[in-house]
Specification:
CATH class: Alpha Beta
CATH superfamily: Phosphoribosylformylglycinamidine synthase subunit PurS
Strand order of the largest sheet: 2-1-3
Distance between the termini: 8 Å
Radius of gyration: 16 Å
Number of domains: 1
Largest sheet: 3 strands, antiparallel
Oligomer: single chain
Number of helices: 2
Shape: elongated
Strand content: 25-35%
Helix content: 25-40%
C-alpha cells in the first residue's frame, strides 16, 4: 500500500526559539500586534510504500529519530494517511 507521511518537528517548549522570536517581532512591526509566542518548526512530507500503516510509521519514526530531528532540542509528531 502507498502512504502519505507527514512529520512535524518543533523546538521543545522549554527551549528558546530565536527564529520564532524574530517572526513575532516582525509581525508586531507590520501591525499584527495581537500575535504572540510564535514557534517556527519544520514540516516534512513524503510518500512511501509499506505493507501496513504500522510499518510506514516505524519507517518514519526511524528516519525522524536518526536524521530529521535533533531529539535534544526538538519534538516531533508523525501522521500517516493511506493513499
Amino acid at each position: 500500500m502507498q502512504f502519505l507521511v507527514k512529520i512535524e518537528i518543533m523546538p521543545r517548549k522549554e527551549l528558546l526559539d530565536p527564529q520564532g522570536k524574530a517572526v513575532t517581532n516582525g509581525l508586531n512591526n507590520i501591525g499584527c500586534t495581537q500575535i504572540n509566542d510564535v514557534r517556527v518548526g519544520k514540516c516534512i512530507t513524503y510518500t512511501t510504500v509499506a505493507d501496513s500503516e504500522t510499518a510506514a510509521f516505524a519507517e518514519a519514526e526511524h528516519a525522524t529519530t536518526k536524521l530529521l530531528a535533533n531529539l535534544i532540542m526538538e519534538s516531533y509528531n508523525i501522521s500517516i494517511t493511506a493513499l
